[in-house]
Specification:
Blueprint lengths: L4 E10 L3 E2 L5 E9 L4 E7 L15 E8 L8 E11 L9
Parallel strand pairs: 4-6
Antiparallel strand pairs: 1-3, 1-5, 2-3, 3-4, 5-6
Length: about 100
């Protein structure tokens, strides 16, 4: 079993939620790490995150991830949702 890795990353995209086989709705989230590498975080049950863990586009977050088992793309990781920490310093306000 892969060990979790700690990542600091900038959220850049979150897809519209869709139903999952587990019955929850999930979305796919794209982020860029501090060293410029892409991360594909899936699945993310965004609606069920605590309020202090709900990130927005252009938020920096710290989280634990493990390499995705069923997706061979190098950027694909499974997010440990209980590890999300939204960091101060939102980059851009897009109102």
């Amino acid at each position: 079993m892969p060990h979790p890795e700690s990542k600091k990353c900038l959220i850049v995209v979150r897809t519209y939620p869709s139903p999952a086989t587990s019955g929850n709705e999930v979305s796919c989230t794209a982020a860029i790490t501090e060293d410029g590498k892409w991360l594909r975080l899936f699945p993310v049950s965004y609606r069920y995150l605590s309020e202090d863990q709900k990130f927005q586009k252009y938020d920096w977050i710290k989280c634990l991830v493990t390499k995705a088992k069923t997706d061979n793309r190098s950027e694909s990781f499974r997010l440990q949702e209980n590890s999300i920490e939204v960091l101060p310093g939102h980059l851009y306000s897009y109102k």
